[in-house]
UniProtKB/TrEMBL annotation:
EC primary class: transferase
Organism annotation: Stomatobaculum longum
Protein name per UniProt: Xanthine phosphoribosyltransferase
Keyword Flavoprotein (UniProt): no
Pathway(s) of this molecule: Purine metabolism; XMP biosynthesis via salvage pathway; XMP from xanthine: step 1/1
Taxonomic placement: Bacteria, Bacillati, Bacillota, Clostridia, Lachnospirales
């Protein structure tokens, strides 16, 4: 899929709000356009076609739908990190701290040790990349498990924030389907050229 479809949808239905917030809740992370997600899943599969992936890892809640659609193309299960420990998570867990740019809080994310193993080859998938903390936190879980991190796929990267730079400097193979270079209410949204 040429990501122009995604870019057009971001321009058409995305809303720019104060504090560098880009709301795409009408089609990506509250109400979901499943047809668009199908194309996103196909594109992630194409981007990582040369890699062996046996699990997709994401974080609740917005990444789950995207990860599930992508997993159909890889034909692998999805594991999602929970932000709160619940009664149905028994036994040992991997854990990392993640600071949310949008929610302005820090969560301990957890995954049961029975779902990540040393032989796993993990692809991280998420909806947004701002400060990079979610992906770096998920990467820590992969490292704790002794698994291999194949890479990370992100639907929308805020290129004017430092998250993408942090992740690439950490040596993670990052593929962002749309990189927003600039956005403001007066001029709208400008995308980085290589994502066109």
């Amino acid at each position: 899929m040429q990501m122009k479809l995604l870019q057009k949808r971001i321009v058409k239905d995305g809303q720019i709000e104060a504090g560098n917030i880009l709301k795409v809740d009408s089609f990506l992370n509250h109400q979901i356009d499943v047809s668009l997600l199908e194309e996103i899943g196909k594109e992630f599969h194409r981007q990582f076609a040369g890699q062996t992936v046996n699990k997709i890892l994401t974080i609740e809640a917005s990444g789950i739908a995207i990860a599930c659609i992508a997993a159909r193309y890889f034909q692998v299960p999805v594991v999602f990190a929970k932000k709160t420990r619940s009664l149905n998570i028994a036994g040992d867990v991997y854990t990392a701290k993640v600071e949310s740019f949008t929610h302005k809080n820090t969560n301990d994310i957890i995954v049961s040790k029975k779902f990540l193993s040393p032989g796993d080859r993990i692809l991280i998938v998420d909806d947004f990349l701002a400060n990079g903390k979610a992906i770096l936190g998920l990467a820590k879980l992969v490292e704790q498990a002794g698994a291999t991190l194949v890479g990370a796929g992100v639907v929308i990267e805020k290129g004017f924030q430092d998250g993408g730079k942090r992740i690439r400097e950490a040596g993670i193979d990052l593929h962002s389907l749309a990189i927003v270079e600039e956005m403001d209410t007066e001029h709208g949204i400008r995308f980085r050229e290589e994502t066109l």
